[in-house]
Amino acid sequence: MSQTQAHSGTIVDPLRKRTFPGVLHVEDGRIIGVEETQSASPGFLMPGFVDAHIHIESSMLVPSEFARLAVRHGTVATVSDPHEIANVLGIAGVEYMLADADRVPLVVAFGAPSCVPATPFESAGAEMGPEAVARLLDDPRIGYLSEMMNYPGVVMGLPDVMAKIQAAHDRGKPVDGHCPQLSGADLETYVKAGISTDHECTTEAEAREKLELGMRIAIREGSAAKNFDALIGLLPEYPGRMMFCSDDRHPDDLVAGQIDQMAARAIMAGCALWDTLRAACVTPVEHYNLNVGLLQPGDRADFIRVADLDSFAVAETWIGGDCVAAAGTERFTVGGAAVLNRFQKPSVSRGDFAVLAEGTSLRVIQAIDGAIVSGDVVRDATVVNGMAVADPERDLLKLSVVNRYTPAPPAVGFVEGFGLRSGAIASSVAHDSHNIIVVGTSDAEMAAAVDALAASGGGISAVSGREVRTLELPVAGLMSTASGEEVGAAYEAITAFAKELGSDLKAPYMTLSFMALLVIPALKLGDRGLFDVGRFDFVPLFVD
Questions:
Q1: Domains in the chain, CATH or no CATH each
Q2: Whole-prediction pTM
Q3: Measured between alpha carbons, how far is 46 from 302 in angstroms, rounded to an integer?
Q4: Whole-number Å distance between alpha carbons of 496 and 492
Q5: Phi and psi (nearest 5°) for 147?
Q6: Under a CB-based contact definition with an 8 Å cutoff, are residues 391 and 407 in contact?
Q7: Residue 39 C-alpha from the chain's centroid
Q8: Residue 466: which residues within 8 A CB-CB, separation 6 or more?
C-alpha cells in the first residue's frame, strides 16, 4: 500500500533560487509534487546538508553511530573515504564500513581508497594495488576513487598510480584529489590526470589557482585543520565550484555540529543564501551523482526543516520519506556493531626511546595548531650523558612511531608545539598507516602510554606518572562501538587531561595523529624514520 505525506512550510529551492510557502507531497519516499500555497506551517523546508569529504573513522565511531549524530544536524549524506580502516584491514575494512552503514538511513557514499599504504615508506596493515581498487570500483556502492594523496606519483606518471585513476575513469566515476601546496606545472599535470577536487587548500591563492584549472574545492573545517576563514571569501566568485567538508572530525565536535555550522558561518560572513546552499547541499550531490533528492518532483524525499535561514537550526531531518531525526534526537536505533581489528600488541620499554647524541643540532618537527601541515626547524639538542633527551622547558619533546603490525624498533624523533610540561600522550589513530604514535616528556611515560594501547587493542592514552587514562577503540584501533555521546564525553575528558599536562593545542590528539602523515608537508615521522615530504625521502635526525 502506498504511503502519502504532505509537508507544509516555506519551500527553499536552491536550484531555482526561490522561497515560497508550499507543500511537499510525498509518496513512497519520493516527492510527487511541490505545491505553492498562500500560507505555510512554521519552518523552512530545504535540501539536507552533505559533507563533501569525511573520514568517518576519525569520529572514532562506527558508521551506524556516526549516523545517529550526523542526522541530528541535518546531514542527509556524506562522501566518505574509508582509507583509514583500509590501511589497517584492506578490502575487509571497506566491506566492514559498507555493511555497518547499511544498517542506518544516512546516505554514506564510500570511495575506493587510492593510497593503501599512502606511501611505500611506511608499514601498513594492508596493500591495495590497481586490481584491488578496480574490484572495489566495480561495486555499485562505491561511487568514486578516494583522494589521490600520492601526488608525486601522479606528477611522475607512476604506472600503478595512473592505473588506479584510469580504473575510475573507465567506470565513469570521479577522482578525488589531495595535493597540498602543489602549484604551477606540477599542479597542471595533476589536474590533467582527471582529478577533479581538492580539500587541502589553506590559502585563498592556492584555492584560486586550483579553481582556475577546473577543480572543485571543498572548504575544510575539521577538528585539526580549519580552513574556513581563509577560503570562504572565494564562495561568491565560484558558487558552483565550492563545497563544505569536515575531513576529520572528532566525536566531541560532531556532537556540537557539522555542515550546519559551516552554512551558518557562511551567512554570517556575508555569503548569499543561494551560494551557501549550493555549496552545502547541491554541488556535492551533482558532482558525485549521489542518490540524494534536492526537493524536485521525482526526487527522493530527502530534506530538512530548519527554524530560519541564518542559524539553520535543524528541527527535522527526513531521508527517503522517513523522519530520521526531530528536536535534536534521532528516530532510529543502532547497536551491536561488530569488532574487527589487526593489532599485534607491541612491547616497549623506556630504553627503546633512547637517542644517542650523534650531533649537536636536530631536525625538529614543528606542530602547528589548527593545521595538519607541519614545520621543519633545526634546534640545538639537549644532551645528558651522551643522550639527546626531551626538554619540556624548551617545548622540545620526543616523538615516536611504533609499528603495530610487526615487531620492530620504534622510530624516534623530536617535535615542538605540543607544549606538554609533563607526561605523555599516545594514539593508534596515526594517519594513514595507523601505527602507534606517542609524544612525551620522558621515555618511561612514553613507554607506559604505548603499553596502555597495547593492552587495549588500540585507542588513545595519556600518562602522568603512574596515572594512566585510556579511550579504547577496538574496531581497527580507530573506532569504538559505544554511543557517540559516550565516546564524545570520554574523548573530551582525556583531551582535557592532555591539556592539564600542558598542551595548549585545540585538539592535541588530532594534531598528534597527523605527525606521521608522510604526504603532508613538511617534516613527518613514520615507523621507519624521519621523512622530508618535500624531498619525498628519509632524512637523518641530526644535521651535524
A1: 49-289 (3.20.20.140), 350-538 (no CATH)
A2: 0.94
A3: 9
A4: 6
A5: -45, 125
A6: no
A7: 42
A8: none
